[in-house]
Write a structure and sequence with these properties.
Elements: H1 3-8, E1 17-19, E2 25-31, H2 36-44, E3 53-62, H3 64-79, E4 85-87, H4 91-99, H5 103-107
Parallel strand pairs: 2-3, 3-4
Antiparallel strand pairs: 1-2
């Protein structure tokens, strides 16, 4: 996303990435072009989930930028040789991933 697009985007709450006792990441709230940069920045300093699971049940709304951040986390996991899978993927996100031909990357660990 360009700096210009970031500046033009309205402020939207950053979907918090929460590390639960079970060792999963749980996301809640929007995951859109308006906030993915903040979500990614928040996740960079966190170790990947020890269970390899990212729960997306409470994520709404989503757009293609939300799919992009999941792919970035998969790249990071591959670089760190850590399995990573997404659970409770919202139907809209699953449809976007299928449209872009990356649905298999989001479902496989």
């Amino acid at each position: 996303m360009s700096k210009r697009a970031q500046a033009a985007a309205p402020a939207e709450a950053v979907a918090p990435v929460v590390r639960e006792a079970e060792g999963r990441w749980v996301l809640a709230g929007p995951l859109t072009i308006n906030n993915v940069a903040g979500v990614l920045a928040a996740s960079v300093g966190m170790p990947l989930p020890t269970t390899g699971q990212v729960d997306l049940q409470a994520v709404d709304p989503v757009d293609s930028a939300g799919v992009a951040i999941l792919l970035e986390w998969k790249r990071r996991a591959a670089a760190e040789s850590v399995p990573l899978a997404f659970e409770n993927v919202p139907p809209t996100m699953a449809s976007l991933a299928e449209l872009y031909g990356v649905d298999d990357l989001l479902s496989s660990a």
